Fold these 2 entries.
Entry 1:
Amino acid sequence: MGFRLGLRRGLLGRRVSPEVQNPNEVAVAVLLPRQAAVDSSRSLVILGRRRLEAAEQREREEEMPTLTKLYSLEDAARHNTADDCWVVVDGKIYDVTKYLDDHPGGADVLLEVTGKDAKEEFDDAGHSESAKELMQDYFIGELDPTPNIPEMEVFRKEQDVNFASKLMANAAQYWPIPATVVGISVVIAVLYARQKKVANTIQNAKSGSVNGCFVRGLALGNHGYASGGGMTQLSPLKYTRWGKAHPLSKQWGGLPLNFEQSPCSVVCAPTIDQMTSFFAHVHPSCHPGAWMCRNC
Ligand code: HEM
């Protein structure tokens, strides 16, 4: 059985004669049986190919973008117990639950820094390179740098609900204010309309053409007239036809007035004489503001 002397670089074997041309290269002489040498050289080729493939694979992996799980700081903060402990260092999240007991700095220091980025504390502890390599075993993800938009939407919805309920509560509490405003407005509108009606009444009375009556005068005053014999109280500021006047008024040639109720009444009488008679007989001195339309 013959032997072949094989020179292989980087192989561990029996050193025979290291006649090396390049001093940086390690030359190794391997004494192998012929067949074994053939097999060995085949397996060396396979080994070499595998290493090459592994290197290429590593290269490909480095080039490929990796998928990293993203968490919010709030997510990370929830893992803050000895049974479930996440720490954040420089934006990277590590699940150190299984490492707590082995941590040379103690479990407490890790538990104390949960819920925040502990880069400063980590750096201050002066961790070695091997500690930093070890960390990679516990890496689970990174902090999500994007703002949490869905939460903002939820917040806006809640705000709407709050706004509606606050509006309802305020309405229930402060309803008397708008009701008072509306009430005052109505009263002002009624007073205004009434005043306007009075003004129109006086105007119409002066013009002498109200409801087909002979409007002979306008009495201004607030002295009561209706005293005798169940005199009907007439509504203030209403025109009263002479024909409907109370008999007592007619008897006096007087007028269906309502001085008692109103400071301003329209006086209707068929003739100016009757009007004059009324004021002469009944209240000659109590109606200084009486106005007579002598032209009618
Ligand atoms: C996955 C995360 C971590 C790993 C793998 C880790 C690992 C280690 C290791 C191996 C040591 C021994 C010293 C060294 O080799 O540097 C150490 C020490 C220490 N670590 Fe950590 N550590 C981690 C996180 C932290 C954090 C977040 C803090 C923050 C307070 C911290 C505080 C310390 C302290 C105070 C010491 C002791 C230093 C001393 O006594 O000199 N470690 N850590």
Entry 2:
Amino acid sequence: NTIDSGNDYDFIIVGAGSAGSVIASRLSENLIWKILLLEAGDEGNLISSIPTAVSLLPFTKYNWGHFMEVQPNLAQSYNDNRMPWHKGRGLGGTSLINYMIYTRGNRFNYDQWAAQGNPGWSYADVLPYFIKSENCSVKNADYAFHGVDGYLGISEPFQTKITDVFLKGLHELGLPFIDYNSNKTLGASPIQANIFQGRRHTSADAFLKPVKHRFNLHIKTRAFARKVLIDEKTKHAFGVEYEVSGKIFKAMARKEVILSAGVINSPQLLMLSGIGPKQELGQLGISVLKDLQVGRNLQDNLAFLGLNFVTPEDVTLRFSKFVNLVSIYEVFESRTGPWVGAGGAQAIAYIKTDESEELGPVPDMELLLIGGSLSTDYGLILRTGMNIRDDVYNSLFAPTEGKNSFMIFLSHLTPKSKGYIKLRSADPHDYPLMYGNYFTDPGNKDINTFLAAVRYVQKLIQTETFKKFKITLIDNPVPGCTHHQYDSDDYWRCFLRSLIQTFNHQVGTAKMGPKNDPDAVVNHKLEVYGVKGLRVADCSVIPFALSAHTNAPAMMVGEKAADIIKNAWKDNLW
Ligand SMILES: Cc1cc2nc3c(=O)[nH]c(=O)nc-3n(C[C@H](O)[C@H](O)[C@H](O)COP(=O)(O)OP(=O)(O)OC[C@H]3O[C@@H](n4cnc5c(N)ncnc54)[C@H](O)[C@@H]3O)c2cc1C
């Protein structure tokens, strides 16, 4: 029942997300090439463009609505122990619903990426691509590391005074002020965000909007890819089967198909197309074209949400700061004010905890300052989006309702635990099964690094700066951990397991690696092993968890992918 769309393209890109939008934009610079960009979702709207309205977005059509499979002894603070794994669906992909924090990851990440047998991915190799994307206007940035002529807006979001308090307190502990997107790796700075002229700047806003008039670029929204069409004999990808309003179409690719459907859907599409673990595909009746470890090697940065503070000083984000005529006027007229914040994120610190065994200045934890708390909106929206249980909210967050509260999220940068995803069925509409396998590393390094960061924050509370602002940590015990003595290591481990949350930075499900890496799915040119004319280019290929929020790395992968592809076809343009 498949309808031939009648159109041939040079390249078909699946997914207009952080990476896919960049690739479509860059490949269509060559007017000889005809590009099809397929996106399952819709264009963003006014709500998605207002930066601090981000907490509403999980409830909209722009979120796929995934949940991780329940993991024993984990996430007890969530309703039914279920941790949401939000993913964006629409032009811009997850950059349409994310918190807009712009971080790249440090130089050690990329040098390690290259050292694992992936030439072309070292820090020196990828830095030019980050810079190429950028139109940066951050005041105190180190401009040796930033671009100002690119498509992607990067600016400083709204700040309250708690940022200064945080940075000064850290300074007392010896942490320098840095531009965290420079080559300096330990230190703190205010947030840099994907906000342009007071509005969220998704990768689609940045890279597609300015070029959407190009006659050679066809962008199809609400077009859901079902599988890649691959010739069984030659193992050559020649098109994509996709669905619009219940009708199934196929489109042909003369040169290549590029999967940029994200860390869950790119591996799902590979497996539906016969590329994946042989036994698993066989059990579902999918004929296997190439046996590869698709879906394995899933890695993620976790975040701990349990550190909620209160101060008598008016230095944080309060509900009343948002809901008043001045703020509403500001966001619509001058595009400034509290609604132009990175969803409350105000500053980042990269620290090295006592758990680290690294020799150099390699951070293992991020402290993310949130200018408000889960109680700022009186528990209405933020915590519902996160699926947090009532009793947990009432114990830890409700006490700060209406007060000056803020949070420090802890995020682990160097996790050892690995999860995986696998097909639930051969139906493309069935979400795959997703297993985080968090805190399962044999040496318990992952949870102990979090514990070390909690101890670091306890020192921060003791600094003169924090004392001056009479900052106190809400120390009500979390339900489920009251059998442990408060503040013992075991108490914190229990608390950590219970209120841990993904930062939605999953990577690695179509891992890049050399041929002799048994887990590798693509090579350093993003080509799927054993299949011609098929690349993957998004967070799935990133071989391990980076010390970064993953939007900028995904866009970098997009920039680099476009160059790799242009180079591959430079002698064969037609
Ligand atoms: C709530 C949240 C907050 C975050 N905050 C930040 C942050 O502040 N800073 C940061 O750097 N990172 C953040 N991240 C992570 C970051 O945004 C993502 O890692 C990144 O955007 C992923 O890029 P990608 O290109 O791999 O995939 P995506 O951007 O997810 O793109 C995949 C695209 O493919 C489309 N697609 C999928 N399947 C199909 C199909 N079958 N057919 C057609 N289209 C399909 C999807 O709809 C989507 O548009 C956040 C993530 C979440 C969920």
